[in-house]
Amino acid sequence: MLPNNERLTTQRAIKAAIREKEFDLKTPLLYLAGRLNQQKNSRLVVVASKKLGEAVARNRIKRLVREAFKIVKVEFKVPVDLAIFPTRKVLSEKVVDIAEDIRRALGNIRGKDT
Fold first, then answer.
1. In contact, 27 and 99? CB cutoff 8 Å
2. Lower CB density within 10 Å: C or N end of the chain?
3. What's residue 109's pLDDT?
4. With 90 as the cut, is the pLDDT of residue 110 above it?
């Protein structure tokens, strides 16, 4: 589990990351929306709708995406607030493959210096 300072926990912060997005990226596994933040850490929320399946499947998808985020977050040069909307395809992938998908999608943002 991610520590509290690396999670978007309030509805206000989650909605801000989605509505005031500075980037949105789509990959075969994920849709990512987010913005740069003024915090020390990048923060994440995984949004898993009921379209993804029953609770067991949704929870597994969220765990996989959070673990992938843990792998990739150290590479970010600037902190971001990130909302990830996974697809059902995530269930058939390994964590390293999901991490690579996030890494590729956020490659341009990682390289920016502010």
1. no
2. C
3. 66
4. no
